[in-house]
Amino acid sequence: SETALSQLLCASIAICVFWSCLSGGSRYLRWITVGLGVICVLLLVFIILNLQDSYTDLMTEKHQLQDNFNSLSQKKLELETRIKDLTDEKDQLQRDFDSLNKKGTVCFFMSTELKSWSDCRQYCRDRGADLVIINTEEKQVSFERVWIGLSDTENEGIMKWVDNSPLKQGFWFKGEPNNSNGNEDCIELNYNREETGWSPLNSWNDYPCSEKKKGICEK
């Protein structure tokens, strides 16, 4: 290394000085000693300058890391603030939801992901609700492209709601339910505006229960 080289040169100077003293101060050894001394001084200057450059680079890197740290700390604070705001909003929504429930007010919410009919129902039940029972035109026209709480999974052709009440009024699309391929036991509300004959009051369709859709929960 540079430090080891400088130490070697300085040791050489010391040896030359020692032999110069032993030989009575030979002019030849004195010149060698002076030359090595100059080289040693130049090397030390080079090492000092190189160390200064290294120090400058390290300080620059330190400042960059400090800036990155400050930036990440600021983002962390912003995320913590955002999380707190979302948590407060969630808590407020939960309080509103609980308040509506205590007042006996019916409320609806949708599953956040596409799920099978049974998984959508479990999603609702985990939240103190169940898949929606549609027994009025007002409810019927409020939703589209979702699972509702109607199926004939227990007895083919006998439609029942999730509360085990029988179907009295239906909003079926023409030709439905047809149990296509013998495995359509769950009901979707599937208002397709682009297909002739579909309308908000004629949009029920039986569909395989394993297919993934969102579900409407009622509480």
From TrEMBL:
Residues of the C-type lectin domain: 103-218
Name of the protein in question: C-type lectin domain family 4 member M-like
Primary gene name: LOC107749246
Taxonomic source organism: Sinocyclocheilus rhinocerous
InterPro entries according to UniProt: C-type_lectin-like, C-type_lectin-like/link_sf, CD209-like_CTLD, CTDL_fold, DC-SIGN_domain-containing
Keywords: Coiled coil, Lectin, Membrane, Transmembrane, Transmembrane helix
Positions of transmembrane segments: 6-22, 29-49
Molecular function GO terms recorded: carbohydrate binding
Stretches of the chain forming a coiled coil according to its record: 48-103
This protein's record includes keyword Membrane: yes
Keyword Membrane: yes
